[in-house]
Amino acid sequence: MPRMAFRDRCRGHHPGRVRTPSSSHLANLDLNLLVSLRELLRERNVTRAAARVGVTQPAASAALSRLRRHFDDELLTRHNGSYVLTPLAAQLAEQVEGVCAAAERLFGTGRQFDPATTRRGFTLLLADYTIAVLGTALSSALAVRAPGVELRLRLVRESFTADIAETSRLIDGVVAPPSPRFDRPDLRSVELFRDRWVLLLDAAHPAADDELTPAVLAALPWVVPFAPDRGFSTAVPMTRELARLGIEPDTRVRVESYLGVPHLVAGTDRVALVQERLAREVAPRLGLVVRECPASERAPAAAEIRERFWWHADLDGDPAHRWLRELLVELGAGV
């Protein structure tokens, strides 16, 4: 049996022909296996997965056997005394999280929501920079107000930008600044906090004490997060600031992380644009200097970064999601 994505199997897709999804096809699936699949792929251990689901170890083993037959794949294989995911299982691991989260939201809609007793899970897509700014406050608030909540944080990757419509239906929301990819009538948003771009250089950089004009910056090597391998993408949040400066950076280091950028600037002749909240926190311990972005012919000063929480309109009436939105706004106001 050829392998195929879990999503396509659920929809009834088969190679070489198109099949319209049907309720009868879905009815033939044991949807209880979704939870077993999620925990088996999370834990990579049958005993721990059984404990998470609340079943016996033999029951979890039986579920794994059924899943292996369904996908015609081992899913978990032995390696050096422990289980590892097969390539197909690694693909399924991400998909099943979204499917289970969507199911939890679906069956929780319309019910009264009590944060003190709920076992609801929330899945957010955000950058590591956002975790550095809001993570501690959010984790602490949940521990006190909603101790039973399971928070799943997925880090932004370059690839997510291509499918924001589908992504937004499978998670509780995205924290990101405005960009054209969010210009959709089915997306809602609210502002959380603001920041701005600053320049980061090593304290020993030859230009650390010089006037950093756009011409000087254009001649320096750069560290750029989330930059494509070729050209420069409008999906990169700092694109507008670079455009204001009239700079197409000489990118020497690309990294899918904001928190990694200062470490890749330290001890080098590279320069980077970094959010000021992050720059001020890490600069002293890494021997870096923070400099203002220069004025340019296009604009006198750097534009603000406005971090917003985005969610799909289908979640507007969900009381649990409304509570989450209000909590995020409250925490953002305290930044």
Summarize it.
Among the domains are: 1-108, Winged helix-like DNA-binding domain superfamily/Winged helix DNA-binding domain (Arc Repressor Mutant, subunit A, Orthogonal Bundle); 193-305, 3-Layer(aba) Sandwich (D-Maltodextrin-Binding Protein, domain 2).
CATH structural architecture of the domain at 193-305: 3-Layer(aba) Sandwich
Taking the alpha carbons of the first and last residues, their distance comes to 53 Å
**Number of strand elements:** 11
* Anisotropy-based shape: globular
Name the CATH superfamily assignment of the domain at 193-305: Periplasmic binding protein-like II
Q: Would you give the CATH topology of the domain at 193-305?
A: D-Maltodextrin-Binding Protein, domain 2
Q: What structural category characterises the helix and strand content?
A: alpha/beta
Helical proportion, percent range:
40-55%
Strand content: 15-25%
**Helix segment count?**
13
Write down the overall mean pLDDT.
Answer: 84
Radius of gyration: 23 Å
Order of helices and strands: HHHHHEEHEHEHEEHEHEHEHEEH
Describe this structure in words.
- InterPro entries: LysR-type_TF, LysR_HTH_N, LysR_subst-bd, WH-like_DNA-bd_sf, WH_DNA-bd_sf, YidZ_PBP2.
- Belongs to the LysR transcriptional regulatory family.
- Among the domains are: 108 residues, Arc Repressor Mutant, subunit A, CATH 1.10.10; 113 residues, D-Maltodextrin-Binding Protein, domain 2, CATH 3.40.190.10.
- Helix content is 41%, strand content 21%.
- It has 13 helices and 11 strands.
- Strand 3, helix 7 and strand 4 form a beta-alpha-beta unit.
- Helix 3 crosses helix 6, helix 4 packs across helix 5 and helix 7 packs across helix 13.
- The N terminus is likely disordered.
